[in-house]
Amino acid sequence: MSDKLSPIRQPASPADNAALTRQVAGLIVAALNLDVAPEEIDPEQPLYGEGLGLDSIDILEIALVVSKEYGVQLRADSEENVRIFSSLRALVDYIITHRTK
Amino acid sequence: MIAGRSADAVLAYRGGEPISAGQFLADVQRLAPLLGAGRHVLNACTDRYHFLVGFAACLVSGKVNLLPPTHTAEVLRQLTRFAPDVICLTDDPEGASSLPSVQFPRSVAPLLPVMSVPQIETDQLAAYVFTSGSTGTPVAHRKTWGRLVECVCQEVVQLGLDADVAATLVATVPPQHMYGFESSVLLPLLGGMVLCAERPFYPADIAAVLASVPRPRVLVSTPVHLRALLAAGITLPSLELIVCSTAPLPQQLATEVEERFEAQLLEIYGSTETGQIAVRRPTATAEWRLWSGVQLEARGSETWAQNGHIEQPTRMCDVLELTGEGRFLLHGRVADLVNIAGKRSSLAYLNHQLNSIPGVQDGAFFHMEDTRSSHTGVTRLAACVVAPELEPARLLAALRERIDPVFLPRPLLFVARLPRNSTGKLPQEALRSLAAGQAKPARAV
Lengths: 101, 445
Hints:
With 101 residues, chain A is an all-alpha fold. Chain A has one domain: Non-ribosomal Peptide Synthetase Peptidyl Carrier Protein, Chain A (Orthogonal Bundle), CATH 1.10.1200. Chain A has helices at residues 14-32, 56-70, 80-84, 88-98. In chain A, helix 1 crosses helix 2 and helix 1 crosses helix 4 (88-98). Chain B folds into 2 domains: 10-333, ANL, N-terminal domain (Rossmann fold, 3-Layer(aba) Sandwich); 337-437, ANL, C-terminal domain (GMP Synthetase, Chain A, domain 3, 2-Layer Sandwich), CATH 3.30.300.30.
């Protein structure tokens, strides 16, 4: 994953993080038509498989929403991808460090 | 077996590096003795080149590849009943399987190229592919080598591919799916084209893998991935051709794809049972053109396909209208059938699996009307279930053991009873009304 394309950003405050987490949770719930409220998603819970029960088509859908909203192009060429979708928190952390808008 | 190419001709790209036909034959020769004495191999390799080597190693040693649509615990149990000697060939070092497994050998140094090309008898059984059936037991379909060759040679003609130019095929579909098996594995092998080992997933991956191989390039994909490519607003390296299958492509989407990527888009129609049988260019015509030799016959409301490379007369699971010699229109699927992102099943099969879970008193899957606009265009099934003693999470976990994840119900609604009519039938519309009136769906969180 190329970090060099991302502009250098100021470290986000915990309050910013919490707001972004809620926003990303909301995008996921809306995009996938999930029957949970965004605030019900545990930020530490796995998104794939047993946790929130998402599959690869969901992950593709989330990747597109995230690229539109934050200008982050996801790639599956590294183990990093497994980590990015390991939990909502990991996804939000990734967006914070790679967002271009 | 390798379409008359010379030993130093490129047969595949892996990580952007070329692999020659001679190297491929050496890899096949090395793998074949590692596959043991049994006759059946579940070829689970995710790397398309590994899959091809595994497939060919089975061919040269008289073994049969098993290609089930999914690898859930229940399917593996059923495969063991179907073929007790089955082993699993895997290239995932951490992949745990309940079957005896053989790891695809990691290459240390390149092997000496092999020059002699194995000859395979046309009536040799090459693979069993499986459909889900309606009673809970998968149905096996025989694929003999000569008929696979015949089908793919027709595909070369119908797609207008020139074997002398040796285009590289990049595919977003798995090699185990019938469409991926024919169009991303056999087509390069038998059509004199070049296989690409990767299976790119995200739009940026598709662009990167295409850029890693030389022109001319062909993209073998599905409506889900083509939608994703358009939504991502990504630029692709130049393409000669885009091939799409697994679900009908709306004409509007086809037009956008052709304009954005400046390549002709051809759509393939087929089924697991028959393999690929027809092609069309959706921006030019709604009519499909059959593979030469294949015939369709209307029998009442059903349509049967036969002759050509088709192993035995087969009832098609779609509503087809014959419009002329070798031509037809596709009017959607037969009501019971389900196709989600290219995975096929039937409501009968899914209902059988749901109702076989201990604690489920009654249950039914149904199609929800979905007015949402999604980037991938995929609509899930819903289900109503009567299971007062079961936790939603436990029920979902039990379903996950039995059916492919794409068919998991969204939402899964717990109800007191199903809206069966006086004859015990369960109209889809009644299920939809029940779902619409249900206040709190029970989804595992």
